[in-house]
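## retry 2 of 3
previous attempt timed out at serialization; input unchanged, resubmitting
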Amino acid sequence: MKSKLIIGNLNSPYLKGLVENLKKDDPNLRVDCLSTSYPKVKAEGIDRVYHNYLSYIWVKLFKKYGGGAWFAGVLCWFILRRDRIHYDSIQLHYVDSLHLLPFKLYKLSATNVSCVTWGSDIFRSRSEPKLRKILLQSDTINVTTPEMKAKVASLMGEDSLNLKKVTNFKFGLTPLNLLKQLSHGRYSRLEMVKILGLNCRADMKIVVVGSNASIQQQHLEIIHSLSNYSFEDCFFVFPMTYSGNPEYVESVKDALVSSGLNYQVLTSYLTEQQNAVLRVVADYFIQLQTTDALSGATQESLFTKTNVIVGEWLPYGTFVDAGISYNTVSHVQDIGSKLSTLSQSNNQSVEHLSNNRDIIWKLSSWESVVSQWKQI
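## retry succeeded, writing output
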């Protein structure tokens, strides 16, 4: 029986979807997980979840990960675990410097160790020398965009990268199945507005700004630009249900008070259904974060035929190559002008937006991509 160990945050919908779909595709495949954070959700079908309690305690006390605590916990797992299975492969999701110390233990526990880069781990890292050492020890490296591959090459050196097996597997998006159902008109627009608890008229154009509360989403700069234009028939929704910190969320709320916009900030947890409804009801989605690697929120919005506006600086070459239609701005300060123009004219045909739906399904449904992940 083949076996895999997934090391990463099991609370991530991407990892949860990966585990569940690997098991769905091959019930005989053993899939275990060593979670970097205490799992608040349960992944269906997972065979065993290992906990690093020393790391959990460290994070609770100091509000950040500690390399020593993580290593000590992994060492305990390596020595004390009752099941001495030698895995066919270990997938390390999100290449963080805290994995440098225990990396040799990973190598002793599996035939193949794959580093799966997520984008922000390599683009925003402050520990590039440590990341280089981790990547050099890996057997396989997975990147999802040409830009990510170029960054990995700059970290390792082109010659070193050429010695590795490099894969280009993308995460599937579990919400696409639900979005497909909702797109067939299960709810009226008024019902969707009520499900989300939005304080707006159903006939207003709904503009979703960003996908979380991180400062990287550049909410303040976006608000400043939007406030220079009139959007009386638009209602702006700011999903800030995770990431970020309370002080930043309050600064966004303060900026909105004097912006002149019709708006609502969402801070309470959204269920999977509510998230899906938000994608379907949105007329526009603004994605201007500083870095990204094929954002799930962006792909879900494209799937629902939403007019998507992204920053030209984001590495979305995969979308361009696939023939996906979306709008761009060169600078954050241009978003007000761009949205004003789009909201007053329909410059993209329904046919083009409908094509996005088919392309995203082929590109990112688990049905299309899960078999690839069995290879590493």
